Amino acid sequence: MPETSAAPEPHVLIEAYYDAGWTDGLPVVPPTEASVATMLSATGLKGHEVLGEIPGRNTVVIADKVAINAVLAGCRPEYAPVVVAALRALCRPEFAYHGPASSTGGSAMVLIVNGPIARRLEINSGNNALGQGHRPNATIGRAVRLSMMNVMNTRPGFLDRATLGNPGKYSLCFAEHELDHPWEPFHTTRGFAAEDSTVTVYASNSLYQVYNQLAATPEPLLTCIADTLGNLGSPNLKGFNESLVIFAGEHTEIMKSNGWGRRRVQEFLVEHTRRRVADLKRAARLPGPIAETDETTWRYVFEAPEDILIVCAGGRAGSWSACLPGWGKKWTRSVTERIVEG
Amino acid sequence: MKLFDPTMPPAARAMALAPRPAGLAGLRLGLVDNTKFNSDTLLRKLAERLERRHGTRVTVTRRKRSPSHEIDENDIKTLRSQADLVVSGIGD
Question: Most buried residue, A31, A72, B64, B81, by CB count within 10 Å?
């Protein structure tokens, strides 16, 4: 039989990408000329076009590298505009990339997708929205993380100094549940129209599910959420950062049926997350000896109501919501970016 | 076997290092506090020790917006013109 120059078996290519150090630990989808070209075309950008820069790290993000990483991650081409928008957001000065990306805090880059594109791409906003099983959720976030590693040099042990890290660093992407929402969709609070498509990037180093099956009114439920946001081990106590609260399941219905608006929820949480200075000193979250006045002096966890990001996602059944404390202090802010489709 | 390289090396940036001072005696000292907890305390104590041992004096102190941000360009100009030696910190 004549010899043929057949393409390598997929497992050979997969191992080669491992050997090169270009994966996140999971096998990648080996790119081809055609798949990279199709992905790049779906970004609507030229190969050399710059998506963003991070001057302090001499980082430049260009489109053709993003396209390769999106293919490696397993994205379908139509996901590319979401990946591009998320990377643009990471490069905005207000996100202050270096801190959340490199810190010992080991943040996941949470991606919240709003608008028509979320429904068109079938990004999961329902049951198990933060879990496994949905390709866009799994691969869009993965493409962003692979781009962080490969293009933005954010590699574990090098410029990613996470002490523990968290599983969300593989991917933490979901859509907001906009169709049965107690409030207006999140992106409209940031100046976008409901029919706009956006992605919000937000750095969080943990995810804490909040349970309450007895509450029938907002106050007791929000008291539990406030306790979670302001617990003594929380990074929130470092000083006026943001936090994300995801209302889900029956908790969403409690808010809706009682007519609590987003602002009222935020204000309640600001007021009920404060801690006594003495408690913070006893736990060494503040330095110094405890003075008598510390027992009656309050320290607020949040500077402003809008620092508590409130979204709605998850299945309709169940008594669960989630708190995701933000990384760092107020110098790093979540960024909402418009998704531009070709 | 063709692999598609997904990496991008850091963009090269021309950078010239200032010559190291031959000694510390009498130098003007600049301090850059990166806002990490206790960085101001550590820098102050370091400056006191340098002054005691070498007669340096602090001529400029600047505090960054955050550890994540670069120092402002205007502050760099001030440090360049008013300090012979700059100490910045800290990491954790």
Answer: A72
* Per-residue model confidence as pLDDT tens digits over A127-164: 999 999 999 999 999 999 999 999 999 999 999 999 99
Query: ipTM, 2 decimals?
Result: 0.91
Distance in angstroms (rounded) separating the CA atoms of residues A50 and A163: 31
> Does B67 lie at the interface with A, CB-CB under 8 angstroms?
yes
How far, CA to CA in Å, does A284 sit from each of A103, A218, A278, B37? 21, 32, 10, 13
Three-class DSSP category at B42: helix
Mutate to test the interface with B, among A62, A83, A97, A98 (most CBs of B within 10 A): A98
Of A22, A153, A332, the CB nearest to B68: A332
Q: Kindly give, in sequence order, each residue whose CB lies less than 8 Å from that of residue A302, ignoring residues fewer than 6 positions away.
A: A236, A240, A243, A269, A270, A273, A308
CB A56 within 8 A of CB A159: no
Nearest C-alpha neighbor of B7 from the set A328, A72, A327, A33: A72
- Reading the block at residue A336, the tokens are 């909402």
Q: Do A22 and B6 touch (CB under 8 A)?
A: yes
Residue to substitute from B5, B41, B68, B70, interface A, most A β-carbons within 10 A = B68
For the whole model, what pTM was predicted? 0.92
Query: Would you say A298 and A230 are in contact if contact means Cβ atoms under 8 Å apart?
Result: no
The answer, for B15 touching chain A at a CB cutoff of 8 Å, is: no
